[in-house]
Design brief:
By secondary structure, this protein is an alpha/beta fold. The protein is built from 6 helices and 7 strands; from the N terminus they run H-H-H-E-E-E-H-E-H-E-E-E-H. Helices cover 40% and strands 18% of the residues. It starts with a helix and ends with a helix.
């Protein structure tokens, strides 16, 4: 009789609700400790239409800052790039870190956007690792087979571009004005982003 009672108790414990609760708890714990898993979850939400960037309509968009500063970034080979030297180009800047789940989530869509404009001299992408750990960020890109060019800050970053929240993305027009700013993850494979960049190129 005791055995039958134990079997019934065991069967009750292995009910769908109990097993699903354990799985959910394990998932939540894994999410807490794994930036990669968090990134995958956010990517899934992007696929169903969430995390879309707020792209300005038309070319007559509100600008935020005329670049007169010497904000600069350094690539993996030590080459210095000054924003003041990029006037006349559309500049896509993403501030990120390798341990940031929303950054990880949006990276495939940025890579896709970059590949669309790779080879165009009038569009520049700067993927700025705010930790300044250029070797780690280069390895991050290689591991995931992303082609994105990585940079580290080589000067103070104007707060108008980046106030500390990651990821943050800004797009500068050819006059070096900020015409787009997104704080938080976004799906940059959205066709509206490419259309916006194309308008800025005209």
């Amino acid at each position: 009789m005791a055995t039958n009672s134990q079997n019934r108790n065991s069967t009750k414990w292995f009910s769908f609700s109990n097993v699903s609760a354990v799985v959910m708890a394990a998932f939540v714990i894994a999410m807490f400790f794994s930036p990669e898993l968090k990134g995958i979850v956010i990517q899934g939400l992007m696929r169903i239409g969430l995390f879309q960037p707020d792209v300005p309509e038309g070319r007559a968009v509100k600008t935020k800052l005329l670049i007169t500063s010497n904000a600069a970034f350094r690539d993996e080979n030590g080459v210095l790039v000054k924003l003041s030297d990029l006037k006349g180009k559309v500049v896509f800047i993403n501030f990120w870190a390798t341990w940031c789940p929303p950054c990880i989530a949006e990276m495939p869509s940025i890579d896709k956007l970059y590949m669309k404009y790779k080879g165009y001299n009038d569009v520049v992408f700067l993927m700025v690792d705010v930790d300044g750990k250029i070797e780690s960020s280069v390895e991050f890109m290689k591991k995931r087979k992303f082609m994105l060019p990585v940079y580290a800050p080589a000067s103070a970053i104007p707060v108008e571009y980046f106030s500390g929240s990651m990821p943050t993305t800004v797009i500068l027009n050819k006059s070096s004005n900020v015409v787009f700013q997104q704080v938080g993850a976004a799906d940059y494979s959205n066709s509206e982003v490419a259309e916006f960049i194309d308008k800025l190129r005209l």
